[in-house]
């Protein structure tokens, strides 16, 4: 079984243009995301899915530099990009949806979600509200079934997975509470790069906790740093 992580990336963010290749403590954000994905043992391959807009040419060029697979498609229809990225996969293979603005991942939670996804032969397994630090799991055959639906709207196409959640009677879904195994959605949203302030915050955190020299990602340190610097309430450590 192939398990392909598909990272949706673009340069045209309205709040932080060019963020996918913006250095984050000296390393481009996209590389941080790719490296984080590759630390998950259950993932067998990685593809970056970007648009055909000229502004996204640097993403394709950077993927070529890294030796990473890259597919390009419609700028708004991200679902079509996922379909293209999965075109060589079998219906029984799996896709892991990853967004290029989330450089951190709870590998233990993502591994648990994937295990439950496979053992239950689910079409789609996810965290309620979608997590910034735990991935979505999608069966390839189910993804193609979504793509074939006549009632897909622009929102479904842009955000890839809402059609599953809007049509639970047509698919086998499994969802978990957004606090599963210590996830903290209020705090976890501080770990996504969506604005200049986010970039500044996360860059400083990486430097302060010496993330790039640590042998493994320690969310106790991450949550403690955020507790001290960016929240007014105590965060329960994992």
From TrEMBL:
Entry-linked SUPFAM superfamilies: Nucleotide-diphospho-sugar transferases
Signal peptide range in chain numbering: none
UniProt keyword Nucleotidyltransferase, yes or no: yes
GO molecular function: nucleotidyltransferase activity
Keywords for this protein: Nucleotidyltransferase, Transferase
Keyword hit for rRNA processing: no
Protein known as: Cytidylyltransferase domain-containing protein
The species this protein was found in: Mucilaginibacter lutimaris
């Amino acid at each position: 079984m192939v398990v392909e992580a598909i990272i949706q990336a673009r340069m045209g963010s309205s709040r932080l243009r060019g963020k996918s290749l913006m250095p984050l403590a000296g390393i481009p954000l996209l590389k941080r995301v790719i490296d984080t994905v590759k630390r998950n043992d259950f993932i067998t391959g990685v593809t970056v899915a970007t648009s055909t807009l000229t502004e996204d040419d640097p993403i394709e060029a950077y993927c070529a530099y890294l030796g990473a697979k890259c597919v390009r498609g419609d700028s708004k229809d991200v679902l079509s990009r996922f379909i293209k990225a999965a075109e060589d996969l079998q219906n029984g293979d799996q896709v892991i949806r990853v967004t290029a603005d989330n450089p951190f991942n709870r590998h233990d939670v993502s591994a648990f979600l994937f295990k439950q996804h496979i053992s239950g032969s689910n079409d789609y397994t996810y965290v309620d509200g979608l997590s910034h630090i735990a991935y979505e799991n999608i069966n390839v055959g189910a993804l193609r079934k979504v793509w074939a639906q006549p009632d897909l709207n622009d929102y479904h196409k842009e955000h890839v997975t809402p059609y599953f959640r809007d049509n639970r009677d047509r698919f086998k879904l499994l969802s978990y509470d957004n606090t599963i195994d210590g996830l903290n959605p209020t705090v976890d949203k501080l770990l996504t790069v969506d604005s200049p302030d986010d970039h500044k915050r996360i860059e400083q955190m990486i430097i302060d906790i010496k993330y790039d020299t640590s042998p493994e990602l320690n969310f106790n340190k991450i949550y403690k740093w955020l507790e001290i610097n960016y929240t007014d309430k105590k965060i329960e450590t994992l």
